[in-house]
Amino acid sequence: MDNIEDNNRIEESQKRVSFESDSYSQNSYTFSNRPKIVDYIIRYSGGLIKDEDIAVYVLYGFVIIMIIISISLSTRGNKENLQKNLTPLLIEAEQMPKNK
């Protein structure tokens, strides 16, 4: 008899419990192992870059171009400074008498 009463109570409690699944929505978050800059490149490339590998190659290319530009700018400045500093020395060396 107790089992029947317990079963009835359980059935009644199950009938009373209801979940409002329509009003509650669970946000799903996707975690990516990709760096944010790669996601940024893929998102804002206008559809040209669709793969993570291609985005990484684009980043490598950008870094190489920046290194080349900075090396060329730094050496260009050094050549101009070197030429300005050596010009008076070269003029003096030309004016010195040569011993035969």
* Number of alpha- plus pi-helical segments: 3
- Biggest β-sheet strands, sense, barrel: none
The low-confidence runs, each spanning 5 or more residues with pLDDT under 50, are none
Helix content: 55-70%
Helix/sheet category: mainly alpha
Approximate strand percentage: under 5%
Number of strands: 0
Radius of gyration: 38 Å
Order of helices and strands, N to C?
HHH
Termini, distance in Å?
A: 134 Å
The overall pLDDT average reads: 76
Overall geometry:
rod-shaped
List the helices and strands and how they pair.
Blueprint: H1 2-16, H2 36-43, H3 52-95
Helix pairs in contact: 2-3
Task: Explain this structure.
- It is a single chain.
- The chain has 100 residues and is mostly helical.
- Helix content is 67%, strand content 0%.
- The chain has three helices and no strands.
- The protein has helices at 2-16, 36-43, 52-95.
- Helix 2 (36-43) crosses helix 3 (52-95).
- The model has no long low-confidence stretch (mean pLDDT 76).
Keywords, separated by commas or semicolons:
single chain, 100 residues, mainly alpha, 3 helices, 67% helix, rod-shaped
Question: Could you write a compact summary of the structure shown?
Answer:
With 100 residues, this protein is mainly alpha-helical. It has helices at 2-16, 36-43, 52-95.
